[in-house]
UniProtKB/TrEMBL annotation, chain A:
Domain 2Fe-2S ferredoxin-type: 8-86
Keywords, in A-Z order: Oxidoreductase
Pfam families: Fer2, Fer4_9
Gene3D superfamilies named in the record: 3.30.70.20
InterPro entries in UniProt: 2Fe-2S_ferredoxin-like_sf, 2Fe-2S_ferredoxin-type, 2Fe2S_fd_BS, 4Fe4S_Fe-S-bd, 4Fe4S_Fe_S_CS
Entry's EC annotation: 1.2.99.2
Segments forming domain 4Fe-4S ferredoxin-type: 106-135, 144-173
Entry-linked CDD domains: fer2
Annotated GO MF terms: 2 iron, 2 sulfur cluster binding; oxidoreductase activity
The organism's place on the tree of life at top rank: Archaea
Keyword Oxidoreductase: yes
Origin organism lineage: Archaea, Methanobacteriati, Methanobacteriota, Stenosarchaea group, Candidatus Methanofastidiosia
Native organism: Candidatus Methanofastidiosum methylothiophilum
Record protein name field: Acetyl-CoA decarbonylase/synthase complex subunit alpha 2
Automatic annotation (TrEMBL), chain B:
Keyword terms, alphabetized: Iron, Iron-sulfur, Metal-binding, Oxidoreductase
Domain of life: Archaea
Sections of the chain in a coiled coil: none
Name the UniProt record assigns to this protein: Hydrogenase MvhADGHdrABC CoB-CoM heterodisulfide reductase subunit B
Species per Swiss-Prot/TrEMBL record: Candidatus Methanofastidiosum methylothiophilum
Cofactor: [4Fe-4S] cluster
GO molecular function: iron-sulfur cluster binding; oxidoreductase activity
TM stretches of this protein: none
Family matches, as Pfam families: CCG
Amino acid sequence: MAEKNQIPLVSVFIMGKEYKIPSGLTLMKAMEYAGYRYTRGAGCRAGFCGACATIYRLKNDYKLKSALACQTTVEDGMYLVQLPFTPANKKKYDMEKLNIAHNALLKEYPEIARCISCNSCTKVCPQELKVMDYVQASLRGDIEKAAILSFDCVQCGLCAFRCPAEITQYHVGQLARRLNGKFVAPKAIHTEDAVAKVNTGVTKKEISKLKSLNASEIKDLYKKRSIE
Amino acid sequence: MEYPYYPGCTLKTTGKKDEEAALEVAKLLGFELKELPTWTCCGVVYNLTSDVMADHLSATRTLIRAQEMGRELKTNKLVTLCSMCYNVLKQVNLMYKNNPDKLYNINLFMDTEEDYLGNIEILHFLEVLYNDIGLEKIKQKVKTPLKDLKVDPYYGCMLLRPKTIAFDNQDNPHVMGDILSALGAIVIENPMTVECCGAHQVITNKEAVLDCVQRIVNISQSKGSDVIVTPCPLCQYNLTTAQKSLFQKGKINYQTPVIYLSELLRIALSDNNENYLKEYMFIKDKLEKRGGL
């Protein structure tokens, strides 16, 4: 089909095996085109969930590159493998018992003190975050800065794979954002109001009505919805 | 005059007082410490293993930041406040001066940064005061002379060891004493001034720190010091916390306050410091008794 539409084909090596793939496809689509079927390692397909961390090299380039498979298109001579899962040390903590002392993050993740500032994490981040800088901010107890710098993290886990100090940066950043939300950032009063309103049962009637509908009735309702 | 300035992690956490005071002192003496816009940990300890370059990355990155800011401020200097950071940065810098091949290697590795050219000069705050500002100017700027306050300047190890990075006489340092004399204080000569406070042993072997501190404090107290000053956050921490334990154990009769040199400088250089002095009642009392205030 690709030939018929005259879309040029490129050579892509998936886990070492060569496939001819129509150019313009994302890495994820390319893998599916080659016959792979995702059971893990694919989520939103829109760059938000971080499930499709991929590493690749290009022909004649020593650089090991990284990307989200759903956000990057194939290039000729690409060698790639997708990482369906990151085995990472994620601490269980009780937010009610935590604080924002200067060593709050260090206590949960003492390995951040092993950071040697090699910057591998920043170089690998598909979200182009300053990962090393937020680890360093965490190290010196600057929770707000760590939260702001890590805000766009999609938890793909590539930083943890590359870290020679075996830090799980993305979990540290997540804790920093949680602490920042709970203790530092101004409270979102409108959210609290909305939650209180839900708790009064005001939405219950609507939801039970929806629950009682069958599929075609819901479809009808969806088609008739007002669009802004 | 503006100096690129590297604070280090401790001055942002447990050593905040040192930074606050030093920034104020700089202002009072007519210069500014401009914090590097981004910086990483210095590496904490200079790794003596000659072929492990990874441990020097942190310090090198800071040297590059200083190089960038230096271009803007037209200086090749980088000022530190923490003795530990001073030691690590200066040793790494010196290692590159003596081993250009290592500088070449690390520049190859750090391919997202501009090359470090090896020209940065690491200065401790004390050096700026002593060499760039000078005792005469400091003397002129004193507003609250520390009249007859008996001060024991404690150096610790990190500013003076190894010899290659020392900016003062290694066995008989005088820079801190000279500055304190300029403030009107009586400087006590404590032979333990360059002895170790126990440093990071505080994490694994507290007893060792108690031993070290007891020796330092015993002589200081026998010479009648009112206060011990130090430029090092770790020394300040060890000397303060160990004295608490020693006092509880009955090994010393009283605890001598240990503050940063910058704090005492700030007291001497400002006139409207009633509020600030609230935190330093022991000094206020002593000064009032001796007619200093």
